[in-house]
Amino acid sequence: MTNPDSFPRREAENGEAENGEAESFDRIARDLRELREAAGPVSFAELVRRIADLRIGRGVSAAAAIPARSTVYNAFQSGRSRMDPALLRDIVLALGQSEEEAVQWVQRTRHARKIERASVAEPSGSAPRPGSDAQPARRLPAPPVLLLLLGLVVCNHASHWFLAAPLDLPVYLDMVGTAVASIALGPWYGVAVAIATGLTGPMFEPGIMAFTLVNVTGALVWGYGVRRFRFGHDILGFFVLSLLAATACSLVATPILVAIRGGAYGAIGRISESLQEAGMPFIAATFTSNLSTSILDKLLTGFIALAIFAVIRSRMRLSAKHMPLIEQLGALRETPGRKARVSVFAQT
């Protein structure tokens, strides 16, 4: 059993460590990482298995006993605004601590919650309490957000004009920055990037501004999809979300193509002509040809945006709580050399 004296104890009365430092979720996560290292270290897959065994031993059904690996991984990460006391208790027990020690860890989360609530309740202009190291909300200041959005507008133009267009690919890649803004910051940030992209595009092309509506549609689908409809919880959900974005964008783009360009535009026009020669009605041919290219385009766009978000998240202190998929990818990177497992059941 791991020696509990190797970890800082917390006073239950005031929530402070023996060294006078105030309790926080970051400190708990840090101590939890130290506890895991001292216990082995124990892999997250093994930790999930141990927690499941503990819960089954308490009478929990096998299906309900197994926690998500990403959820367990998240408990060890800094920057949290809450922590599940029941899960923390099971993690500590699974790492070899006693029931008494597990209760002390749970008490620490309660003290940390009190301190955080008190810090939020303080007026913004008031001085911090002596000894308090409660962290402010992890939000980007306005200038970095603005710079990020401007960079994503440039990303939209660059990916289209310097990648898709020169290579004559049957895709556009003009929504990569829009997708990053939507999944990382929110749908209306994506809309802002979409509109800015339209305003800074080649104004000399007839009707080009009308296609901003397509970009806006993609922003709303990706943004609300990962937040309200939980399509960012796993890789399959995000794949489906990108297909939905392709379909929605095609529904918006088809009438614009018909009204402004007679249904003919690059690869879409060539595919549409072939379908019409095969006997398909004009409108149906235009939609089908647009959808065929849009599916590939939005899948590439979505997963490129996902990769960009995964890279910039920690550097810019962006929250990924709405996208457990990002944490899952982080968990896979955390254990290089370990073969990814599709199911916890396959590990037993």
In short:
The chain is mostly helical. It has 14 helices and no strands.
Please tell me about this protein's structure:
With 348 residues, the protein is mainly α. Helix content is 62%, strand content 0%.
SSE arrangement:
Layout: H1 25-38, H2 44-57, H3 62-65, H4 69-74, H5 85-94, H6 99-121, H7 142-164, H8 176-184, H9 187-199, H10 212-227, H11 235-261, H12 266-277, H13 282-315, H14 324-334
Helix pairs in contact: 2-5, 5-6, 7-8, 7-9, 8-9, 8-10, 8-13, 9-10, 10-11, 11-13, 12-13
Key phrases:
single chain, 14 helices, elongated, disordered C terminus
Shape: elongated
Helix-residue proportion: 55-70%
Number of strands: 0
Poorly predicted regions: 8-15, 122-138, 335-348
How much of the sequence lies in strands comes to under 5%
Which structural class matches the secondary elements? mainly alpha
The Rg value, from CA coordinates, equals 25 Å
Number of helical stretches of at least 4 residues: 14
Largest sheet: none
> What distance separates the N and C termini?
23 Å
State mean pLDDT (0 to 100 scale).
Answer: 80
Order of helices and strands: HHHHHHHHHHHHHH
